[in-house]
Protein: Fatty acyl-CoA reductase
Amino acid sequence: MASIAEYYAGKSVLITGATGFMGKVLVEKLLRSCPDVDTLYLLVRPKAGQSMQERVKDMMNCKLFDRVRVDNPDFHQKIVPISSELMQPGLAISAEDVEKLTTCINVVFHCAATIRFDEPLKHALQLNVIATQQLLALARRMAKLEAFIHISTAYANCNRRHIDEVIYPPPVEPKRLIDSLDWMDDSMVRDLTPRLIGDRPNTYTYTKALAEYVVQQESGTLNIGIIRPSIVGASWQEPFPGWIDNFNGPSGVFIAAGKGILRTMRANNDAVADLIPVDVVINLTLAAGWYTAVHKPKSVLVYNCTTGGINPFHWGEIEHHVMSTFKRNPLEQAFRRPNANITSNYLINQYWILVSHKFPALIYDLYLRLSGQKPQMMRIFNRLHKAIGLLEYFSSQDWEWNSENISMLMAQLSPEDRKTFNFDVRQLNWPEYIENYCIGTKKYVLNEDMSDIPAARQHLKKLRNIRYTFNTLLLVFIWRVFIARSQMARNIWYFVVSLCFKFLSYFKASSTLTA
Structure:
């Protein structure tokens, strides 16, 4: 049987969402580990004043492709961008490009989706469901297609506590929903959204569940696999540890904690933080593409790509390692010293938001106003609270995912392929991974130089001294205003101080006797 790299040799591959986080890693891995792949066709749309070609050029110039550049300086010749727009009928692919794709494509990787949790339902439905329908219609016309791999999410069925590797019945028939929303205006859809999504937390998980059902129902005779990753994080090993290029999900939370902006977060310390490294997801995706094409399973195979049931790590442990890493490798120009805490108690969380977030933000914005600058800290905290609020559902509870298909696929790989396309999360060392993740946010998201760490440490010392000075002045203020003016308050104060001295003396004497 051909190895994974041998299978992809000479193949033409179509990738949607190639300029996104996972799509970039997929393109890089194919070029590096399957160097004989023929052509990668990327569906790309113009964006933010950039043409399709400019976006692909920017992608290929990023650090992620450094290893590929060394091995094959002309790798860009294997990449062919195709103009496309997921919001338009027929994906806005020209007739000439449709002709080209339907005659040469062997494998399709559908990574494109909106990952915004608060996306309006109509928009999420168009990007996650209708676009998938249209891509499947195009795939059914591809004469040489051998595998169609759809990237979903492990949280598509998060309204269930135990999730098997099956496609569950949808919350509503997709076609009926699409037809119903078509004539409604945005305000009407917005009002109906909470009732439609029911016990799911957002439109993202809701539409991804619908998309899975669409893939199953409209696949025809295609060989299809579905990958369900949990919370996708920085790379574990490939192309190098800790690569990340965005603020999404835990990355933004880690940065906010490292900058000293985030001081409290509502989550369950004992809940499993089901992070999955992006290179694990991509290795599994390529292996699933190989297996789907070579073995042609009789039904759609679903792969729950998670860590919680195999190598669990908890939110409380993540908090400890994130704080530890950023104290040793601080971010530049931190707002405060890193010192975030996780609590599951709503009232305690609200108290710390008031004391550690809103009050300092008001003071800092007042300072900015007085110095003639535009206030910004309260706006930053409001955005942070919104982002954390969207994550709260996933950081406060546990799920159980079946992973039999993952184990089956791993058993099908040769020893060499298991090494080259490693998705065995049992080997993942969590403390090391979290440290590399945090350093990755510093190097690749914030573009900070590791040689500037000594200066960043000096800045943290300066912030510590400012905090000590402020606390001392606050204590003096409280003494002068509240204690020094009241005989009863002074008596209580002296009693507490003398009690502390007696305790310290007793502790010192006990230590001496023990020694």
